[in-house]
TrEMBL record:
InterPro entries found in the cross-reference section: Haem_Oase-like_multi-hlx, TenA_E, Thiaminase-2/PQQC, Thiaminase_II, Thiamine_Salvage_TenA
Keyword terms of this UniProt record: Hydrolase, Thiamine biosynthesis
Pfam families named among the record's database cross-references: TENA_THI-4
Pathway(s) per entry: Cofactor biosynthesis; thiamine diphosphate biosynthesis
GO cellular component, one term: cytosol
Domain of life where this protein originates: Bacteria
Protein name: Aminopyrimidine aminohydrolase
Lineage, top ranks: Bacteria, Pseudomonadati, Pseudomonadota, Alphaproteobacteria, Hyphomicrobiales
Length: 220
């Protein structure tokens, strides 16, 4: 079985939990409060900078030229396309660049961002890809599932359309393919580390939405 099928099966229960989270249900129904979405989108803007940085390191570690192109392009798209989406919502919710700069990373965003950057720098290429894969794959699945059932009109349609869109899904399929290709020649120890990284990132995806729902902040 491929790494991706194995990893998805092993984490399916966690994915089902993510789908049923109050944040995602409310997003689908269009009833998500603006303060919760605003919290989410500010933290996500911080997160995407770390995500882009980790993708750039993955590009530098790629085992072939196609991988350099794939992940440097991924880094670029993470910053450019998603910034545009955020700029839209920042304007709508009146978040100024100064507000964004002065809002620190929440504990969960800080943890997830640092997990990706630390993994990108310290671990071998296959493990880096396994850590990055849930960020792509879970958003693609959640995006499509929400898109299929979303209330219309929905305040958050632009977000839903981005992650349900064909362009994002093509990028996700390509990351799955590269991850499976490198996993197929990985040692048992590396495979084990890949599964560990994939599960950790999936947990952090859950925690990221949970933190937005609860307006997570530093307790002290
Ligand atoms: C937390 C998080 N994970 C994944 C994505 C998709 O790139 C995102 N925008 N934010």
């Amino acid at each position: 079985m491929s790494f991706s099928t194995d990893a998805w099966t092993a984490n399916k229960a966690l994915y089902d939990t993510i789908r049923a989270m109050p944040f995602n249900v409310a997003l689908k129904e269009g009833s998500l409060s603006e303060d919760r979405f605003k919290h989410y989108i500010i933290q996500d803007a911080h997160y995407l900078i770390a995500f882009g940085r980790a993708l750039a390191v993955a590009a530098a570690k790629a085992d072939d030229p196609d991988g350099i192109v794939q992940f440097s392009e991924g880094a670029k798209v993470a910053i450019i396309v998603e910034r545009a989406l955020h700029a839209d919502y920042f304007q709508r919710f009146k978040v100024t660049p100064a507000d964004f700069e002065s809002t620190p990373l929440s504990p969960v965003c800080h943890h997830y961002s640092n997990f990706l950057i630390a993994t990108a720098w310290a671990e071998p290429y296959p493990v880096v890809l396994a850590a990055l894969l849930p960020c792509f794959w879970i958003y693609a699945e959640v995006g499509r599932a929400i898109h299929a059932e979303a209330a219309s009109p929905n305040n958050y349609q632009a977000w839903i359309d981005t992650y349900a869109g064909q362009e994002f899904h093509d990028a996700v399929a390509a990351v799955i393919a590269t991850t499976d290709r490198v996993a197929a020649k990985a040692s048992p120890e590396t495979l084990k580390a890949m599964h560990h990284a994939f599960t950790r990132a999936t947990q952090l995806e859950w925690m990221f939405w949970d933190s937005a729902w609860n307006l997570g902040d530093w307790p002290v």
